[in-house]
Amino acid sequence: MMKSSNSKDMVSRAAKAVAVPLMVWAIMQVIDMVFAGMGVINNSADIKTLFRNLISSLAFALAIGANLNCGRMDLSLGAQMYAGVIFGGNLALMLNAGGIGVLILSMAVGALCGLATGFIFINLRILPMVLGLGMTLVFECICFAINNQQGVILYGKPGVEILSNITFIVIVTAAIVLFAYYFFQLSGYGFKYRAIQGSQKLASDAGINIYSNCVICYVIAGTLAACAGVFITIYQGNLTPVLGMSSNGRVFSNMFPMVLGTWIGGLCHNREGGILMGAVTVNIIILGLTKLGLSNSVQNVIIYALFLTFVVYNTNRSKIDYYKARRARVAQAQKLMAQREAAH
Amino acid sequence: MSNSSAAAVSERSPKLTLADRVDMIKNNRYFPIVFPLAMLAFLLLLFVALTGGEFMKRSVILGIFNQSFITGTMATAVAFIYSTGNVDFSVGNAMGLACVLGALAYQATGSMAVMVLVTLAGGVLLMMFNCTLCVTCHVKPAMVAIVAMSIYSAICVVLVGAAPIGVEYETSKALEGVFRYGSFLLYFGMCLLLYHGTAIGRKLRFIGGNERCAIQTGINAVKTQYISFLFAGVGVGLAGVYQTIRTANVASTVGTGMGTDVMLATVLGGMSIFGGTKSNCFAGLIGAITVTILNKGLLMIGVSSTMIQGIRGVVFLLLVYLNSERQKTLPSRQQF
Amino acid sequence: MKKNGWLRKAAAIGMAGVLAVGAGGCSDSGDTSQGGESGAGGQEKYKIGILEVQLNDESTNRADWFNNYIAPKYNVEFMFSEACSDLNSCMTFIENAADAGCDAIINYYAVGANTQQLVELCAEYDMVYTENGGRNPANDAVYTGNYENFAGNFMADQPATGKLFHDYLSETLDTSVEHGFIVGTGNAYQGNAQQTEISANMLGAIEELYGLKFDSTIEELYSSSAPVNGTNDKGIEVYCYPGAPATSGWLEGLNAAMQTGKYDYILMSGNVLGNIMTTVDELETAMNKDFTVIGFGSFGEALTSAMNSVDHFGNQALSMSTVKFTSIVSTMGFSKVYNCLTGHRDACLEANGEPSVLLFRMNAVTNPQQLEEMGSWDKEGKWVADYDFVDSMLAVKTEGLTNEQAQETIYKMDYDAIKARLN
């Protein structure tokens, strides 16, 4: 009896999580069919594009969330991504380590960048957003200085094709979600992490080492950002370094899947799964809009207008629910009064 | 009191370590103001020494002011927003869109006066829109900033389209003189007065320090925050006018990245981007001048342009660390 | 314990410092020159500011040529900017360069209609100014206004560049088969001269070869900031797709257009080969359709990879591209400012007394062997613009040099001439 109720609950939660991207896909499919004469996903190249963009959005959104949930907004994540992929990628290419080598070494360098940022943070204790600005300047400068300012070029390099292989992408996506779920929800680290999320002071008083927990957060964020960067690079063919804090754009553009995912996570009681669905949803919207042949600026206006609408709704959801409940109460009272009057 | 008892008291009293003394200095109410100024003076003297006095040339000093004008004005403006704890880094793109609107108005009317007025109005309206989202719709400021940045820059590209929009060069040059200096001094003076000499500034700092407490003492937080965005909007519009007349042209990328430059300048100037009671409205200007001095000085002593950004990052972290109060636990703030 | 804390804080600051200094240690592209005293020969020393628009392999190569080849011989010092992305940053660099003692500015940023402003700014600081780009009619006042510090412009012979694409299409396109074309118009809609000319020539070639008439003018097609169909009386599918890969969604949009199945020729006016080849390759496999790619390029890994790769059907992945020799372009800018600085401004003027626009011609490259050969040139020890060539462009070395002679010298540097010189 208990088991069946649990499995029903699980199915209901999973259905809620999948419902959002499915609904969005259905809407975009209709729009694309009407205005462009083709669907959102038409062939294997579309699936590849969707999956590749999905994994980069997902990894980046999880990376942002790792620190953001504890009240730390790390603006240097974009620069860490550049540093991880440019250093790690070039190193792997030099060692002829192939696509898996590129991924592993990039993530390793990303982890080191995260470690450096985390170490500096716990020691200097500057506001995370401010530290992020400083670290962005430093990391961007480093990326520029290596490989003759060319960044990393993956197009045409032997052995990197595996990074475009859908099966491989699905495996990495699953591994990331499972790892994040285990790490943040099931492990001892996750237990402490959630305690810190509740109250840093209380967690510290309870004996949790908030400093090591924080550094680990930064390391995970750097690793995930670099992972995202590898799939961005394989799609674009190359990754050229940027200056002037332009790398922050990566953080901002991945906020939508993160925020939407957190909301879906609330529906299905699984934050990581929610972020996966959030990333799927946003990428379906993007893929659907590109089929319409709109200019990139118009696409951006549409995407961010949707984002804004969602955020305004999400922030004021409780008020809407409150007004709905009040109206229902008033209606019920009026009905009751009418019944009483009728009875008299 | 006898000498022996005084000595006994002195022995019993705790001895201050160097770290305690440093903390005492840093906790002094004037430290956040004096320190950035001292650093600015230090950098100035350092580069004067390293360039053999060349750094004190009139053209260099004038160049420093010219280059820090726009960021300085913006940073002065956003001090009003930052004070209340609202981190809005979309101000650069808001300025960009205001510039585009002003330039389009110029194109339509051929009047520089209209351009100035429309840019100012554009700045105010866009900041009021941001404020409505933050204050009335209760969306977290960082989220508003991210959305606004993207939407404003996309609108700029759509509106500007092909080539950048040009405005009259001769008039622009003329406006760069008395108009620019006069309007900046007027605005800066007004900000100083409002921020440090009236109840508005006090309320803003109070809200930034503890919004709930401020509301319970009878402060209308919504109204006060609207006022803060209004003054910020005037500054954003004014910076937009300076931007347009400096280059006599408005491209679709105008203002991109300036939001983070303004944050950087504000923090370097000794103010927290999350506001609070120690906020002031001149930190941004000091920070903007410090960044310009650093850039110019490093270039003049022959440091490669690639290296300058990295050095700027390290100096920034160092100065912020020296200027900030070290918290007992890790600093954090819920943004979303 | 306390000591430990201080040590860790110092280590944290030190780490940030080491990261940045480490970066500088790796970087050598932006360093100012090592001085040119040895080869000075009593010449006055000049300092020249190079205003860069992008920092990439080309700018690195340029810095190498200026710093290590030109600086010692001609007793000049160079100072390089960060990547200037707008007019404001250009003005800031010019002001900083003046304060750092620069005597001239070579500007690689396309300023459009704002040349006068930069010329006047340089005049304020008594600096000579030249820019990479064509003569914009909006800037006529600068050419006729007798600005003594303005040395004119230098640029690619854009019609000639466009013609390379036109000629290649004329030679290779089989019009008996109906093809569909995506023309990547890049930033032509923002007035980029090179991309305008290439787009116009590509569209012109399609018009001529099929004998068709577009419903809109060619200018309307390439200057659209939104994707537009080049509808025509012969029903040939032509899709003009503007923008650049840096914009989010650009690559996805190209992908979507290719998936319609209407197009098999991908013609790119911008330097986007490094970005689009993966997409093309994947779509060839997914759609089992052969795409022919032709696009503007520059020496570097991206072009080499594209030219050397074989597509799904066993063809060369990139059919044709164009390349230029950085040292020749740099010589044009350098000679212009150096002639002015040494009192030979007349060598930079047209016969009518207006500052001239020096032009160079790009080279087409159609196979990996040709690319490999040309790619091995223009490097340290094998500079295409060697001292003889540079001397022939400087009035102090070539007595009575005129602008026409300088232009002729540049035009003579074609593929065969360079090959003969270097071999």
Walkthrough of the structure:
The complex is a heterotrimer of chains A (344), B (336) and C (423). Chain A is mainly α and 344 residues long. Chain A is 80% helix and 1% strand. Chain A has helices spanning 2-35, 44-68, 77-94, 98-124, 128-145, 166-186, 188-198, 200-205, 210-236, 248-253, 255-268, 271-290, 296-315, 317-343, and strands at residues 152-153, 238-239. In chain A, strands 1-2 form a two-stranded antiparallel ribbon. With 336 residues, chain B is an all-alpha fold. Chain B has a single domain (32-323), classed as ABC transporter involved in vitamin B12 uptake, BtuC (Orthogonal Bundle), CATH 1.10.3470. Chain B is globular, with a radius of gyration of 22 Å. Chain B has a two-stranded antiparallel ribbon. The mean pLDDT of chain B is 88. In chain C, α10 (273-287) packs parallel to α11 (301-308). With 423 residues, chain C is α/β, with parallel strands linked by helices. Chain C has 16 helices and 13 strands. In chain C, α11 (301-308) links the parallel β10 and β11. Chain C is globular, with a radius of gyration of 24 Å. In chain C, 45% of the residues lie in helices and 14% in strands. The longest helix of chain C is centred in the first third of the chain and has 25 residues, at 2-26. Residues 23-41 of chain C have low confidence and may be disordered. Chains A and C meet through α2, α4, α5, α9 and α12 of A and α1, α2, α9, α10 and α11 of C.
Quick recap of the structure?
With 336 residues, chain B is an all-alpha fold. Chain B has helices at 3-12, 18-27, 31-50, 58-83, 91-109, 112-136, 141-160, 169-175, 178-197, 199-209, 211-216, 221-247, 258-268, 283-300, 305-323; strands at residues 165-166, 249-250. The mean pLDDT of chain B is 88.
* Mean of residue pLDDT values of chain B: 88
- What do we call the CATH topology of the largest domain in chain A? ABC transporter involved in vitamin B12 uptake, BtuC
**Oligomeric form:** heterotrimer
Shape of chain A: globular
Number of domains of chain B: 1
Q: For this structure, what is the CATH homologous superfamily of chain B? A: ABC transporter involved in vitamin B12 uptake, BtuC
From the helix content, strand content and strand pairing of chain B, which structural class follows? mainly alpha
Shape of chain B: globular
Low-confidence stretches of chain A: none
Q: Could you tell me how far the N terminus lies from the C terminus of chain A, measured between alpha carbons in angstroms? A: 48 Å
Number of strands of chain A: 2
* Percent in strands of chain B: under 5%
CATH architecture of the largest domain in chain A: Orthogonal Bundle
Number of H- or I-type helical stretches of chain B: 15
What is the level-2 CATH architecture name of chain B? Orthogonal Bundle
SSE order of chain B in H/E notation?
Answer: HHHHHHHEHHHHHEHHH
Count of helices of chain A?
A: 14
Query: Which whole number gives the mean pLDDT of chain A?
Result: 91
Number of domains of chain A: 2
